[in-house]
Amino acid sequence: MKVTIGSRGSKLALWQANSVRDHLAAAGHVVEIRIIKTTGDNLENLSLAQSGTKGLFIKEIEEALLSGEVDVAVHSLKDLPTDQPEGLCVVAVPQREDARDVLIASLPCAELKPGARVATSSLRRQVQLRHLRHDLELVPMRGNLDTRLRKLDKRDCDALVLAAAGLHRLALGQRIRQYFAVDEICPAVGQGALAIEIREDNDHIRNAVRLLDDPATHCAVRAERAALRRLGGGCQAPIAAHARLEGGELHLVGMVARSDGGQLLRSATTGSARDPEGAGTTLAEELLGQGARSILDLGF
Fold this sequence. Notes:
Blueprint lengths: L1 E6 L3 H16 L3 E6 L12 H4 L7 H9 L4 E5 L11 E5 L8 E4 L12 E3 L3 H10 L4 E3 L5 H9 L5 E5 H6 L8 E2 L14 E6 L3 H7 L5 H17 L7 E8 L2 E9 L6 E9 L3 H23 L2
Parallel strand pairs: 1-2, 1-3, 6-7, 6-8
Antiparallel strand pairs: 3-10, 4-10, 5-8, 5-9, 11-12, 12-13
Helix pairs in contact: 8-9
């Protein structure tokens, strides 16, 4: 069968698409990758928080999927909103890479000098970094992985905070100075995981790609996305959740904060792998019980 994969054109996005292509090609399919430029690719000078748009990096790819221009979309799952367009579904979530955030710097976070310039475009990372080191200067930085590393090497900043997964996938793990524990910087929902999205009515493609699914990863991200959905996935307030499956139990941690870092709430819970959505909803309810509703109602 011929399969066309839709993907963004960044080096990391193409690594992800090629990994899916290789699995499908090994199963005997003829696979083509079609590069699609997204809204997020066209807004490199605008911070993600300022954009106010959900699905910045997927909208055009999903449109191509719905129109039949492509058969499969490969996304970073953290970019996928909790509400999908009618007619589309995530049929597979491959085995997850390391979900943690990392520091790229000459020194660990605790040893950076006061006032060191730490670059990240993510409000989620910024508010948690402020609680680890209130004396750092946090500066926004967008662009692909190579661009950010090049800016660090040119001393545009003293350190970067990035997702471990992208560095591992592009064989840049040697640049990592420190891994942040999930109770230091809680990862974005779905971080480190891929989403394989198709049209709901395309049974041939469903049968071809569902073998890529990793049940443990899929279970964990279902719980994380349920927490995000209950908290309000469209809110601009920083929200994070991470789930780990162990022995039939899901261990979840979550975070909600004001974007100025003035209030930060954390919670942890354990739930059954038989009901990942229930476990994620429980995590969200615990955060709401701590006062997250007032943060979410303000929207920041």
